[in-house]
Specification:
CATH class of the largest domain in chain B: Mainly Beta
Number of strands of chain B: 7
Helix content of chain A: over 70%
Largest sheet of chain B: 4 strands, antiparallel
Number of strands of chain A: 0
Distance between the termini of chain A: 19 Å
CATH superfamily of the largest domain in chain B: N-utilization substance G protein NusG, insert domain
Largest sheet of chain A: none
CATH architecture of chain A: Orthogonal Bundle
CATH class of chain A: Mainly Alpha
Shape of chain B: elongated
Structural class of chain B: alpha+beta
Largest interface: A-B, 32 and 33 residues
CATH topology of the largest domain in chain B: mini-chromosome maintenance (MCM) complex, domain 2
Radius of gyration of chain A: 16 Å
Distance between the termini of chain B: 60 Å
Strand content of chain B: 35-45%
Order of helices and strands of chain A: HHHHHH
Strand content of chain A: under 5%
Helix content of chain B: 25-40%
Oligomer: heterodimer
Chain lengths: 169, 122
């Protein structure tokens, strides 16, 4: 099988997995008064692809996942929040990966926290209320905890799963 | 190499938690007991109520959604709402300046203002 075909298949399966994780996430009740506190299960796929392949593959799958989950499980408003979170977190994670100085744990944690920060920025814009920044401490802490957990699982997957794709030069 | 990465990871976690603590501390220091309850819908002030009187009323947004606001014992809270997530109902009763109750689906913000704050609003 050619590399391109393998890559295409891998990204397709990854997108499907990310969609399932997104759906699972919607089934988990988050009994916390602060919107935006979530596990971020689907970020597992993003972290995995980012470390195993490259930022382009990870971004492509993430973009499709964000669009599709908003369409299937969310709304236009939720798309604005998740898209701003995803763009910021994708950028931060790609940059951290590029430095080569952080493991999956650090990358995933920074991604989770910046995702939350991106959502707060969007909320400040949409509601034109700077007081939302009061949620920032809670969302930083929750992002650190969930990012760490996702990063740990991500690191395990990176170690165990062999995509049998030659890394791009 | 892995050791260096782990060290960097730990530095990252520590700085994130410190940042959270710093933001939280700064916000706490800036807080004072409030005087007014300001209701904002889609970023525009729709009503201002005194925090020291008891009050119970429905806030109706442009598209007909309802949040029931209750002010009692110097605190404001949302008693019930017809939004899907009900996060506004779960948020704590507020009484200090800068504290908010926010209903994202209804683009509704309940805010506490101090003595001088309402001048800027009215």
């Amino acid at each position: 099988m050619s590399r391109d075909l393998k890559l295409l298949t891998t990204l397709g399966v990854s997108t499907a997995a990310a969609m399932i994780l997104s759906f699972l996430e919607t089934l988990i009740p988050m009994n916390i008064a602060v919107p935006g506190v979530k596990i971020g299960l689907a970020n597992l796929v993003t972290v995995f692809l980012l470390i195993k392949l490259d930022w382009k593959s990870a971004s492509a799958v993430t973009a499709i996942r964000v669009l599709l989950s908003a369409l299937l499980f969310g709304s236009v408003a939720s798309l604005a929040y998740s898209a701003s979170g995803a763009v910021l977190s994708m950028t931060v994670m790609s940059l951290l990966k590029k430095t080569g100085r952080f493991s999956a744990l650090g990358i995933s944690t920074a991604g989770a926290v910046s995702h939350n920060a991106g959502q707060i920025i969007m909320a400040v814009i949409l509601l034109s209320t700077k007081e939302i920044a009061y949620w920032l401490p809670i969302l930083i802490v929750s992002g650190t905890v969930t990012g760490l957990a996702i990063g740990a699982v991500g690191a395990l997957l990176v170690k165990k799963i062999d995509l049998k794709l030659d890394r791009k030069a | 190499m892995d050791k260096i990465r782990l060290r960097n990871d730990i530095i990252l976690f520590a700085s994130l938690l410190l940042a959270a603590l710093a933001v939280w501390g700064a916000l706490k220091l800036l807080q004072k007991p409030g005087k007014y309850v300001v209701v904002e819908i889609e970023g525009k002030v729709s009503a201002v109520y005194a925090l020291d009187g008891d009050l119970k009323l429905d806030i109706v947004t442009a598209d007909g959604h309802v949040n029931k606001l209750v002010i009692e014992n110097g605190k404001a809270r949302i008693e019930s709402a017809d939004c899907p997530d009900k996060l506004c109902v779960k948020q704590h009763a507020i009484s200090m300046t800068g504290e908010t109750i926010i209903c994202l689906p209804h683009k509704l913000v309940i805010r506490i203002e101090g003595e001088g704050g309402v001048d800027a609003v009215t």
